[in-house]
Specification:
It is built from four helices and two strands; from the N terminus they run αααββα. By secondary structure, it is mainly alpha-helical. Strand 1 and strand 2 (about 120-125) form a beta hairpin.
């Protein structure tokens, strides 16, 4: 009589957990590298990588349920989810610039102003009124 049972082995979840952790860490590492190189761009990839990392971890936890493991893994996912949500908030909401309300409007005459070039020469609205081609660029600072 053959009494061997044919049970299916539990699925391996550690590759998904490792991949999720790599994605969670990869975004800040890339951003730190960009800052070190002097490239200050909006890190749109940061919340995307974090989201992929959390989804991979959640997939690992769904594949191999267990009461104690479920609680511990749930805490781990919650801890990984907090910075993910924060990254999406920073990118989507907190980094928006306010509506421009300055004195220069499209189609209207510029107000009187005076400034200086980098070499010290004067630049004013009268220079623009001479009719020579010129570009006036406004930098909207908001910090």
């Amino acid at each position: 009589m053959n009494t061997t049972s044919t049970s299916t082995p539990a699925p391996r979840t550690w590759p998904l957990i490792v991949a999720g952790t790599v994605f969670l860490v990869l975004g800040p590492v890339i951003y730190g590298t960009q800052i070190a190189m002097g490239q200050l761009v909006t890190p749109w990839y940061l919340p995307a990588f974090a989201t992929v990392g959390v989804v991979l971890m959640m997939a690992a936890f769904v594949r191999r349920p267990g009461v104690l493991r479920g609680v511990l893994r749930g805490v781990l996912v919650a801890l990984a989810l907090l910075p993910t949500v924060f990254a999406w908030l920073v990118i989507a909401i907190f980094s928006r610039t306010p509506e421009y309300t300055g004195p220069a409007r499209v189609g209207e005459k510029l107000p009187t102003f005076a400034a200086h070039y980098a070499d010290g020469r004067e630049f004013s609205d009268r220079v623009l009124a001479t009719g020579r081609p010129a570009v006036l660029l406004f930098y909207r600072g908001h910090w």
